[in-house]
Amino acid sequence: MQPATSPARHYRERTVPFLARDGRPLNLVHVRGEQEPRKGPVVLVHGAGVRANIFRAPVEQSLVDALVADGYDVWLENWRASIDLEPTEWTLDQAAVFDHPSAIQTIVRETGRDEVKAIIHCQGSTSFMLSAVAGLVPQVKVILTNAVSLHPVVPRAAQRKLRYAVPFVSHMTPYLDPQWGISVHGITPRFITLVVKVSHHECDNLVCKLASFTYGTGHPTLWRHENLNVETHEWLKHEFAKVPLTFFQQMNACVRAGHLVPVEGYRELPEDVAERPPETDARFVFFAGERNECFLPESQRRTYEHMSRRRPGHHALHVLPGYGHLDVFMGKDAARDVFPLILAELDRPV
Fold this sequence. Notes:
alpha/beta; Rossmann fold; eight-stranded mixed β-sheet; FAD; AB_hydrolase_fold; Cholesterol_Oxidase; Esterase; oxidoreductase
């Protein structure tokens, strides 16, 4: 897939390959403006079944643009869930233990800085939060998380879908793939695509509708259509692809438990990692779209309260009126409504 990005800007970009701790090849996209950055590095971590490019929607100003303009040294992490990499049946555990610590170490080595800030979204957020609270990314001092962190809460219909549909579908296919909206082959992909065509009537973009089916029960699930410009709605056709059922199986366990649950037994992630006192001194900033149909705002409230019980007044929570899940970053008015809050929180002294 060829990335489509926000209006052309004069950036210096390079791809920095690195290996996860289990040897899987990953990469970081390093973005700098014409001037040397005045501030330190900030890493952006995408969600499931997308890629680092998701932060660069074709809007007048993307989040990357805003960060570069504000003087930050911007790094975009393609972890093992990225559709720019070879598909794999990943878990949050793998990303937390193997991917994010290696990404942060690479940024520290490349920049010579010993502190990093992070903006993390959805399953990039859940997996990165596991890394953080387990003490695996001690160089990260400010973490801005969107949509969900340690306590996933989903609508009732999505709970039923996780509990009953995921086990059934996992016997038929290892992946769900919104790209079936462009090209579909095989009995199971054809059947699922037909179900989506029959049940989703919110727009004419089949990839958009398959993304809604894949990630929840909303119409749509991942954004409010009124928050997207026409170009972004078309652009997203190429920004969503395979996501493994292994992730949904783990998320089902997490939703039922009320907090993130490690499933692979890595010693770095004890069973109660999401409940015990965090092994980090980072400041956390929690963002939630008020109308998020993927993970309810209660998800972020619970983690904010969990963190604040240990360090009252240290962390922050912002519930964004009129926003959903990904439109927090790709909405046509996000540069006005959201990005100033992000920049202010990143600039706040720790």
